[in-house]
Amino acid sequence: MKQKANKGGRPRGFDRDEAIATAMRLFWRHGYEGVSLAMLTDAIGVAPPSLYAAFGSKAGLYREAVDRYATGTALFPLQEEGENLTLDQALSRLFDRAIDTAAGEDGERGCMVSTGLLACHPDHCDLAGELATRRRDTAVRLDQELRRWFTPTRSAEAARFLCAVLQGIAVQAKDGATENDLRAVAELGRAGVTAMVAIRPEISH
Questions:
Q1: How far apart are CA 86 and CA 195, in angstroms?
Q2: CA separation for the pair 190, 174 (Å, rounded)
């Protein structure tokens, strides 16, 4: 909701958390380069000087928006403390969370991290690198989680495969794929990983 700014540019009752949430939606929908400063200030209801005072820059606001997104759409842990899930159950949970994020009724389509700044203006390479690091971190975390069911070598392979499927789901969701379409893709991805168990019969799922 827009608020009238005072003489200093900051609206009365400025809510920083709400501003980040609003920016997150815009960046999620349009991408970093698709969101102008004017779009941000209009949606948040602040003058440009106030936005810079609060976040330092558009990039600073974007970083906080991505942090908010990552906190609210976490894929992990695959298994909560005290649970004893099978591999199949854990993968179902992973894909359910990914699809709920990429195509859920309460959010935008796609994924801010999976498809964020894959191509960008040279001025934004630092931000693009930060998102690439987040994607690599997801693969590392997934590798670690899968070691409950796989040896380290196999878990790394499975993690890379799953990251590719998850990124594909995000792209297809952005392009308008239905939830049923995405769940069909997820089912094939789940089957592909569980089939890896047969290659190493000593590992049980």
A1: 14
A2: 21
List the CATH code of the domain at 14-73: 1.10.10.60
Q: What digits encode the pLDDT tens for the residues 72-94? A: 999 999 998 888 999 999 999 99
**Total count of residues recorded for the chain:** 205
Is 190 in contact with 205 (CB distance < 8 Å)?
Answer: no
Q: What is the pLDDT of residue 202?
A: 45
- Cis omega (within 30 of 0) for bond into 49: no
Please state the separation of Cα 160 from the chain's center in Å: 16
CATH 1.10.357.10 in the chain: give the residue spans: 76-197
pTM metric for this prediction = 0.87
For residue 42, what are its two tokens? 């209009």
DSSP string, 34-81: T--HHHHHHHHT--HHHHHHHHSSHHHHHHHHHHHHHHHT----SS-T
What distance in Å separates the CA atoms of residue 144 and residue 148, rounded to the nearest whole number? Answer: 8
d(CA 60, CA 50): 13
Burial of 153 (0-12, 13-18, 19+ CB in 10 A): exposed
